[in-house]
Amino acid sequence: MKLESNMSSAPVASHKRSSSEGVADPDILERAAQRYLQMSTKEFVEKWNSGFFKQHPELAHKAADVALLLPLLSAR
Asked: Considering Cα of 18, then 21, then 25, then 26, what sign does the dihedral take?
């Protein structure tokens, strides 16, 4: 069976970027830590750095998800 791609006929939508588009909300880490772990960003970072979540596997997956946002701290 041969599949052919016909991308040239696909509709294209134009999009203009706003000045704030692509800029991360600086409070997203705080909201994620509060929502998923019921703690502040400061408390989360302290516990993350101390290895607290390695000893609490029931929180480890949520902590790992929140940790993905840690680079946003340096963007502030």
From this structure: negative
